[in-house]
Specification:
alpha+beta, Factor Xa Inhibitor, two-stranded antiparallel ribbon, 26% strand
């Protein structure tokens, strides 16, 4: 686990929506967006497949 504290957004396939989470700065995957709008654009609005949380 990293020591950073970044507010990020990721797509939750269970809820079908993008949700905020805290990213510690280490590891992770491509389901990490800097803004809610970016997450929604890539995952919700276009219904593209995103890596799930």
């Amino acid at each position: 686990m990293g020591y950073a504290y970044f507010r990020m957004y990721g797509y939750n396939s269970t809820s079908g929506h993008c949700e905020q989470f805290i990213y510690g700065g280490c590891g992770g995957n491509d389901n990490r967006f800097e803004s809610l709008e970016e997450c929604k654009d890539k995952c919700e609005h276009r219904r593209k497949r995103c890596i799930i949380m």
